[in-house]
Write a structure and sequence with these properties.
Elements (H helix, E strand, L loop, with lengths): L7 E11 L7 E19 L2 E16 L8 E15 L8 E17 L2 E16 L1 E4 L3 E4 L3 E3 L6 E3 L11 E4 L3 E4 L3
């Protein structure tokens, strides 16, 4: 899939983050780092479903009047679920997906909480066939293909039929489902 044809879309997240009670109040924010992480991606016909979390690290100057540690860190996790539509996605494919932060804005609400606004971009980098081990079955003749010059045949789709007059037994053990 070339970069101009890759399936991609955006996800926006707005969340109020509360500084843990064990941490001092915020005087000002120095840096906020957001790192999205995909926990699971799965395909269903026409869609890639993603679940994951965004790890957020906040570095801030604390409101401390007793000369204690002025710089503090707070860590947060925001879960997300997202879908990418792509017409050619078939069942049992695997999708290599990347998610990144396109935009981030942080605003201090008060000394104990901040608001974060994120725009994430999810991109399908590659769709791959998924090799599935199946029981011996009957395949239509047009699904049997030669996969190498040596003449080894393989079932090209997991498409079992009951009419054996137009089919032949498939005992290859592996069926490949490809994106057209």
């Amino acid at each position: 899939m070339s970069s101009h044809r890759r399936a991609k879309n955006q996800l926006t997240i707005t969340k109020a983050l509360i500084i843990p009670e064990t941490k001092p109040d915020i005087e000002r924010i120095l840096r906020v780092t957001s790192t999205p992480e995909i926990n699971k991606s799965s395909t269903i016909p026409g869609t890639v479903a993603l679940t994951g979390k965004i790890n957020i690290n906040v570095e801030y100057v604390a409101c401390s009047h007793n000369n204690s540690q002025p710089i503090h860190f707070a860590e947060f996790e925001i879960p997300f679920a997202h879908f990418i539509d792509r017409r050619c996605i078939k069942r049992c494919q695997t999708a290599n997906v990347r998610i990144s932060v396109e935009f981030q804005e942080v605003q201090v609400i008060n000394r104990r909480s901040i608001n974060i606004f994120l725009i994430l971009k999810a991109v399908i980098l590659k769709l791959s066939p998924f090799n599935m081990i199946v029981e011996p079955h009957v395949c239509p003749m047009h699904n049997i293909t030669n996969v190498n010059p040596g003449g080894n045949s393989m079932c090209s789709q997991l498409n079992c039929v009951e009419d054996s007059s137009v089919s032949q037994p498939c005992s290859f053990g592996t069926c490949i489902i490809e994106c057209e």
